[in-house]
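Lab notebook, design round three. We kept the backbone fixed and only want residue identities now. Task for the bench partner: fill in a sequence for the structure below.
Input C-alpha cells:
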C-alpha cells in the first residue's frame, strides 16, 4: 500500500510511528532502539530453537560451559553478545549460524 493510499484511509505508516517515538533513522535514539530490537529478536530466536530441541536454559548453559543466568540474559536481550558466543550457543543446540551483512 502506498503512502497516499494509507493517508486516504487515515492510516499512519509504521515507520512514521517509530520515528515519532524513537527518532529518525540514523539518530542516536533510533540506533539504540534498532539495536534493542535486534537483541530482542535474536533472544526470541534462541529461545525458540532451545525449546525445539527440548533443553532448559540450565541444560544449555551446562552444555556450553556458562551459567543459566547468562542464557536468560541473552534470551531477554539484556547482554551484549559476542559473535563467538553466539556461534557457541547455537552449536550447543545443534544449529549453525549464518551471518549476512546488509
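Proposed sequence:
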Amino acid at each position: 500500500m502506498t503512502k497516499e493510499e494509507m493517508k486516504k484511509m487515515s492510516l499512519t505508516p509504521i515507520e512514521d510511528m517509530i520515528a515519532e517515538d524513537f527518532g529518525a533513522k540514523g539518530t542516536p535514539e533510533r540506533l539504540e532502539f534498532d539495536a534493542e530490537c535486534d537483541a530482542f529478536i535474536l533472544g526470541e530466536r534462541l529461545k525458540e530453537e532451545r525449546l525445539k530441541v527440548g533443553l532448559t536454559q540450565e541444560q544449555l548453559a551446562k552444555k556450553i560451559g556458562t551459567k543459566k543466568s547468562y542464557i536468560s540474559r541473552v534470551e531477554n536481550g539484556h547482554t551484549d553478545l559476542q559473535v563467538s558466543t553466539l556461534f557457541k550457543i547455537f552449536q550447543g543446540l545443534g544449529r549453525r549460524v549464518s551471518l549476512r551483512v546488509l
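Keep this in mind before ordering anything: The radius of gyration is 18 Å.
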